[in-house]
Amino acid sequence: MSKEEPAVPATDAIGKLVQEFSKLPGIGPKSAQRITFHLLRSPEEKAKELAEALTSLKQRVNLCSICCNVTESDPCPICRNSQRDAATVCIVEQPQDILAIEHTGAYKGLYHVLHGAISPTEGVGADDIRTRELLARLDNNSVNEVILATNTNMEGEQTAMYLSRIITPLGIKVTRLARGLPFGTELEYADDMTLTRALEGRQEF
């Protein structure tokens, strides 16, 4: 079987897997075909390892009851770390944004994951993201500052403005990442230096 272009007719099993891979973000039909035929050429145990990893992901990973980050333990390691600054909460859109910020080593507070952003055009409102859980956290008067680290695009800006409106009356300082992040940038793709400067230069919102 050629490694460049497998001369294998599409079967129901192949077509189904190509279709499923095509549903993943960033994977088009051609990439889905390459991945499928790569798995077809691989030893059976490799395919089993992938299947087991996917099953384990769905069975073992849940959301932290405090910050809504993905975790295998509750609370998550960041929330139960007594060395973190519990008075500061950084609000991000997705779990992968935490990975980007943590990689800089510049932030020592806690997080809250919204799992989305307000987008009227997509039918996503404030009740569709984790705002209720956020307000419940802020209700105990232990948080002094909230950092709005939503993405610098239209949806992220709308979300940041909404959060500022509902948090400011609670008497909590609300800041936004500095404009070292160009408009349209998603946090997970920003480099460490840009993120570090954005954190250090954050301003009141």
What does this structure look like?
It is a single chain. The protein is α/β, with parallel strands linked by helices and about 200 residues long. It has 2 domains: about 50 residues, Helicase, Ruva Protein, domain 3; about 140 residues, 3-Layer(aba) Sandwich (Dna Topoisomerase Vi A Subunit, Chain: A, domain 2), CATH 3.40.1360. Helix content is about 40%, strand content about 15%. It contains 7 helices and 7 strands; from the N terminus they run H-H-H-E-E-E-H-E-H-E-H-E-H-E. It has a 5-stranded mixed sheet. The longest helix has 17 residues. The chain is elongated. It starts with 11 loop residues before the first helix and ends with a strand. The N terminus is likely disordered.
Q: What is the fold's blueprint, element by element?
A:
Elements: H1 12-22, H2 29-41, H3 44-60, E1 62-63, E2 70-71, E3 85-92, H4 95-104, E4 109-113, H5 131-138, E5 145-148, H6 154-167, E6 173-176, H7 192-200, E7 203-204
Parallel strand pairs: 3-4, 3-5, 5-6
Antiparallel strand pairs: 1-2, 6-7
Helix pairs in contact: 1-2, 4-7
The value of Rg in angstroms is: 21 Å
The CATH class of the largest domain: Alpha Beta
pLDDT < 50 runs, ≥5 residues: 1-9
Enter the CATH topology name of the largest domain.
Dna Topoisomerase Vi A Subunit, Chain: A, domain 2
The assembly state of the depicted protein chains is single chain
Q: Determine the N-to-C terminus distance.
A: 59 Å
Total domain modules: 2
SSE-based structural type: alpha/beta
CATH architecture of the largest domain: 3-Layer(aba) Sandwich
Question: What proportion of the residues form beta strands (DSSP E)?
Answer: 5-15%
Strand arrangement across the biggest beta sheet: 4-3-5-6-7
